[in-house]
C-alpha cells in the first residue's frame, strides 16, 4: 500500500513550514488579506490541522473541531474566482519554495485546485 501524501512530502515538519510560508504570502496579498484576520495564529493552527488530515496524516482537525464542512465554514467569506486564483498562486509559490519533488507538488496542487474551485461562492465584480 502506498504511503499517504502527508508522509511522502515530509509530514508535520514540512506542513508547519508550508503553513508559515503560505500565510506570510496571504497576509501581503491585496486580494486575500482583506478576508483574513489581522492575527493569523488561529488560522494557521486550523489550517495545519486540516491539511494534516486532508493529505492523509492524523485527523487533527476533526478531533479538535468536528467534521471540516469546508464549504459551509467558508460561506461567510466572499470567495471570488480572483481570490481562488490568488490563493492557488500563493500556494504554488509556497510549494516551490519548500523544494518538494515535482510529482508531489503536482499532486498537492491538483487537490488544492479542486478545493479552491469548490470554495468559490461569489462572482467577481464586473468593471
From TrEMBL:
Keyword tags: Heme, Iron, Metal-binding, Transport
Metal-binding recorded as keyword: yes
Keyword Transcription attached: no
Gene Ontology MF terms: heme binding; metal ion binding; oxygen binding; oxygen carrier activity
SUPFAM superfamilies assigned: Globin-like
Sequence similarity: Belongs to the truncated hemoglobin family. Group II subfamily.
Name used for this protein in its record: Globin
Annotated source species: Caldalkalibacillus thermarum (strain TA2.A1)
Amino acid at each position: 500500500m502506498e504511503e499517504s501524501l502527508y508522509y511522502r512530502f515530509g509530514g508535520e515538519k514540512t506542513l508547519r513550514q508550508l503553513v508559515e510560508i503560505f500565510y506570510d504570502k496571504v497576509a501581503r496579498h491585496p486580494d486575500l488579506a482583506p478576508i483574513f484576520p489581522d492575527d493569523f495564529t488561529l488560522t494557521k493552527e486550523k489550517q495545519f490541522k486540516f491539511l494534516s488530515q486532508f493529505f492523509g496524516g492524523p485527523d487533527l482537525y476533526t478531533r479538535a473541531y468536528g467534521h471540516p464542512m469546508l464549504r459551509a465554514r467558508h460561506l461567510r467569506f466572499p470567495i471570488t474566482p480572483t481570490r481562488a486564483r490568488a490563493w492557488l498562486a500563493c500556494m504554488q509559490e509556497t510549494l516551490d519554495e519548500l523544494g518538494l519533488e515535482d510529482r508531489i507538488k503536482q499532486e498537492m496542487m491538483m487537490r488544492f485546485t479542486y478545493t479552491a474551485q469548490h470554495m468559490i461562492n461569489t462572482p467577481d465584480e464586473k468593471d
